[in-house]
């Protein structure tokens, strides 16, 4: 490599930095896409498995009904006859089974959601969680997906009180953290420090999918002029939304930010490129 290739600001160095930046951006986009799609894929997989179980239970009953001609009205339906003819369903019994299984699945989901929202239902859900989490091998997987589901239901911004800065993972480097709760008395007693802060130190790009719950001495926690929403936006965009300088509104939208977020960033950073 020639000396000019290593000179900061040279064409080769600029091209290398641009290439690394493009690679990092592509990696961030890919990671964000995977983290976003994973809960959806898991949900679809679970619902599909539940649908298959319900359908398999109904199938023998429906075949018996069809044998005795109790599904003749359905068999004479033009739409059902067409679906059977083109091979989407093997018979009218399969069509009725699929529709019935879907309706039962919807009813079960609605019923579980309704029960889980009242006090006694929460206890039942807790018992169910405990039983599944106690199964060797399955328990750890169930707990992981349970936390994923809770993260989808609850609002991150409502769970976090404020944004802080802490030195982590080494002295001199700082990470964003969210204050989540009052430090328990037993933790303060064990550390012999009455002034403690309980913080969640998240990992980008999804602050609810990974991170560390830590208790810091109050003197090691720095206040930062940033709202919880801004902190979360910065994390999910791998820092790009934390400093909009140098990015035009169109570029910010290419990074996946919605119009409201871009407008807010323009107001906070008047020198954003037009």
Automatic annotation (TrEMBL):
<keyword id="KW-0812">Transmembrane</keyword>
<keyword id="KW-1133">Transmembrane helix</keyword>
<feature type="transmembrane region" description="Helical">
    <location>
        <begin position="95"/>
        <end position="115"/>
    </location>
</feature>
<dbReference type="InterPro" id="IPR007462">
    <property type="entry name" value="COV1-like"/>
</dbReference>
<feature type="transmembrane region" description="Helical">
    <location>
        <begin position="37"/>
        <end position="58"/>
    </location>
</feature>
<keyword id="KW-0472">Membrane</keyword>
<feature type="transmembrane region" description="Helical">
    <location>
        <begin position="65"/>
        <end position="89"/>
    </location>
</feature>
<dbReference type="Pfam" id="PF04367">
    <property type="entry name" value="DUF502"/>
</dbReference>
<protein>
    <submittedName>
        <fullName>DUF502 domain-containing protein</fullName>
    </submittedName>
</protein>
